[in-house]
Predict the 3D structure of the following.
Amino acid sequence: MVKDTYTYPNGDEYVGEMEDGKPHGQGTYTTSFGDQLEGIWEEGEFLYKNKGE
């Protein structure tokens, strides 16, 4: 997996591990409004928050 940053056309941003151009592994998704979703991703889908959060 590669760690990368991807900015979506609507201004949202994903920073973290990616595979085949999709969020996959540890990463943080931040909306253009500043809301964040941090945790584990698989093939572009959010699975769960990190332990301890």
